[in-house]
Write a structure and sequence with these properties.
- The chain has one domain: Orthogonal Bundle (di-copper center containing domain from catechol oxidase), CATH 1.10.1280.
- Helix content is 29%, strand content 2%.
- It is built from 7 helices and 2 strands.
């Protein structure tokens, strides 16, 4: 059992240990497999085959297991390291200490989006982009999306999403009619021009590599999804009598989503872990919430 902390409460030593473990994993050639894995399991509604990491009920448990595997590999390098979380309802500025040169580094430059500060800047030699959906070999960001400005989700928006009592609903995808908690948090239920979408907006706010299926190329991915995981924890606390995952049983053969998603006790590839085994995070870690 270990504890994940709010990134703003990390000591200088804890920040350094997390960064160094991530860099070491990259140098050992073991980081990019996570980038490829996330891209591989990013399947949209209109594609064929299983939807797993996104646009499906498995969004929360799949990413929980994804973070666990990554975190355990970091801990093989430094046992003291855990994945901190970024509460983007509180740390909302490009000048937050989150983006300091000793931690995540700053925004991309206006000319090409290249991040030129911090440990993950290409010019510092330690963070080449080896696998991505664009040709750039350097980390890119465009915070706030200057061409179409957006702001990070607010605490009121998050509270509204947390008030939804149903985990997920048919048709179990990204359609606007899928009104459950999962789809609202993931960010497909509301038109972008109207605001209200959460997880996806954070990816868009950071910009650069964070906007595509290869988003783990930006290490801020892990801090963002650690908070997404904590949001699931908070939702469970708020709705203790709700089903923590739906659908509970495999869909009927005549259901349009049959074969596209997994129910509670069906193993999730590539981990071969069922959503049901991941409903209680306390089997693995706790969160320090302040």
């Amino acid at each position: 059992m270990y504890t994940r902390m709010n990134q703003r409460n990390l000591t200088s030593d804890q920040r350094s240990r997390f960064v160094n473990a991530v860099l070491q994993l990259k140098h050992l050639g073991r980081y990019d497999k996570y980038v490829k894995l996330h891209a591989q399991y990013f399947a949209a509604d209109g594609e064929t085959g299983l939807r797993m990491a996104h646009m499906a009920p498995t969004f929360f448990p799949w990413h929980r297991q994804f973070l666990l595997v990554f975190e355990h590999e970091l801990q093989m390098i430094d046992p003291s390291v855990t994945i901190p979380y970024w509460d983007w309802t509180a740390d909302r500025s490009t000048t937050s200490a989150l983006w300091d040169d000793d931690f995540m580094g700053g925004d991309g430059r206006s000319s090409d989006g290249q991040v030129t500060s911090g440990p993950f800047a290409y010019r510092n030699g330690g963070w080449p982009i080896n696998f991505g959906v664009t040709k750039e070999k350097y980390l890119t960001r465009s915070m706030g999306r200057p061409d179409r400005p957006i702001v990070l989700p607010t605490s009121d928006e998050l509270s509204s999403a947390l008030s939804i009592s149903t985990y997920d609903t048919s048709p179990w995808n990204s359609a606007p009619g899928t009104r459950g908690f999962r789809n609202t948090i993931e960010g497909w239920t509301v038109d972008e021009s109207k605001g209200g979408y959460l997880h996806n907006r954070v990816h868009q706010w950071v910009g650069g590599q964070m906007t595509g299926g290869a988003s783990p190329n930006d290490p801020i991915f892990w801090l963002h999804h650690s908070f997404i995981d904590l949001i699931w924890v908070r939702w469970q606390r708020q709705h203790p009598n709700s089903a923590f995952y739906l659908p509970s049983r495999p869909l009927a053969a005549n259901d349009p989503q049959h074969g596209r998603l997994l129910s509670l006790d069906e193993p999730m590839p590539p981990f071969n872990v069922k959503p049901s085994t991941l409903l209680d995070h306390r089997r693995y870690y706790t969160y320090e919430e302040n």
